[in-house]
Amino acid sequence: MNNPVIGGQQPVRTIMDIPVPAKGRTPTTANKPNTKQRSTSHRKWTKWWPAFLVLLVGTILYSVLLKPRAGFRDPLSGAFRLSGNFGELRSNHFHMGLDVRTNGEENLPVYAVAEGYVSRIIIEETGLGKAIFITHPNGYTTVYAHLNEFYDQLEETVEAQQRSARKREQDLTFTAARFPVSKGQLIARSGNTGGSEAPHLHFEVRDTRTGNNLNPLLHGFDMDDDTPPVLAGLYWYNRQYSTYHTTANSISITGKEGAYTTSRSVIKVRSPLISLGIRATDKSNDNRFRFGIYRAELYFDGSLVHEALLDNFSYTDSRYINASVDYPRWIKTGIFIQHLSALPGNHLPALKGNGIMNLSDKKVHHLSIRMYDVNNNVSNFESEVQYSGVIEDPQPTAPGAVAITPGKEKTITGKQSIIRFSKAAFYDTVFFSLKEQPNTNPGKASDLVSLHNGSIPVHDSYTVSLKALPFINERLKKKVVMQLNNGKNKYTAKGTWKDNWLSASFNTLGTVELLIDTLSPAIQTVNWSSFSEDPEELKLICRDAIAGVGNFQAELDGEWLVFDRKGNDFSVRIPTKCNKGKHTLTITATDIAGNSKRETYSFVKR
Description:
- Strands 1, 4, 6, 7, 8, 10, 11, 13 and 14 form a nine-stranded antiparallel beta sheet that branches. Strands 17, 18, 19, 21, 22, 24, 26 and 27 form an eight-stranded mixed beta sheet that branches. Strands 15, 16, 20, 23 and 25 form a five-stranded antiparallel beta sheet that branches.
- Helix content is 12%, strand content 40%.
- A hairpin with a 3-residue loop joins strand 29 and strand 30 (417-421).
- By secondary structure, it is mainly beta.
- The protein folds into four domains: 82-218, Distorted Sandwich (Glucose Permease (Domain IIA)), CATH 2.70.70.10; 230-387, no CATH class; 402-516, Sandwich (Chondroitinase Ac, Chain A, domain 3); 522-605, Sandwich (Immunoglobulin-like).
């Protein structure tokens, strides 16, 4: 694959200039070497061809491996220390970049790692929060996320767009000439916006052409690391059945410092078809944080049967993490077990080989696992495995359960509910159980419907339709929402009505119901006493009992104001151009059901 030029460097020439006859001319006899000359030339070529080969291979390796690593500087000043690496296992996604530590501080200067231009700006409540995208001439785009603010000229442009649209969330693109940046230029201030749980800088490297995320540690951002990955746990799965219909069987292991084996000489398993799972982490030098491993390989009798290489895939593909780990185990315990196999519905490009091993001959077979970090430190596991001849029974299925297999659409119909799944919904066979029961919730508008349970992952959004109770008339329909509870979180949707059925989409299973919501959100000031004395930024908390705050507006004397949001916490900035005298600040919070609450505050700027 051709690699782009980085940082203005020219590619190394690898083609030798060899004179050739002009087109249409034949060399004369005088120009032809005699036999002795040819023999001497052959001996010279034989003598020097190894050196030429080394030079050629070295040039190719430089072009492929070293050149892409040149030209980038660190996005922060000071030590480049991480709290999260690329490919790390996270909730519903692989981590798609690096989390650069800011030592718990916000508003640290963030710099462009190379020359380029601001190509995109995102401001969103969750996810990346406030983020800037810089496209570089070397074929890469870098992303800087969870920011508090952009550099002045860019911040002013974005805020003008927010005021014009009267909307905080933005997704803006720019031409190359609009906001050019130089290497090392201040572009933003770090923060804790979006899905961030603590102050840090989230940094990504993307392929500009494909949009895929790449591992930044392969592109010039190094960590001191000579420590191999740690194998903390090993498990086998009975692959005669769905992985959702059996459990992980722990294998006792021993070893450390990159060399592991089993406590017993041979692993005895109760299935002729098995796959493996591992709990593995990596650690860099002088860093307390545990990271994800870069690559894992599984060998069966010397043959590579599965490989996972976490590099070069998209945000869309990232949700396949739920097929790449033991999801039910994670939901119940919080522990990630990484499959060394590919479930039938797992189409993550980073995986090769299905990893299922056939032991039906009852012979002893050799297992070998290789685990690498990005610095090529490797840990090895070696052992023998054998089918014992005893069959492990699957978990029992609920009466009336319906089998749903990957790659096939499925509609489940009950008396009060209809659920439609796409062919991409499930990663392995699910024996789906639907349960409808009377609802005892005071705000009920439908029966209570259990969609299997929240420990089984769904890859894409599915549609659920619930029938409203008979007393729900046209007036009440305007205040009805659908809510799903998966045991950890509640998700609420406005949905769409057709006759007496409300339909909405979710991407997790759980218990779903229709609720009547007539309560307005509550608005509470946090720093009113200090704000009224020095009106610069008003902090508020807005909560809603059922549906959650869907829309927030702040107006100063009727003019829309820019604000920041972190969950239920809001902060409204008063413009510096605000004149002296009395002013009126109006706050309006609206929930998903359409209920609004408005509060008006008066203050005097001296």
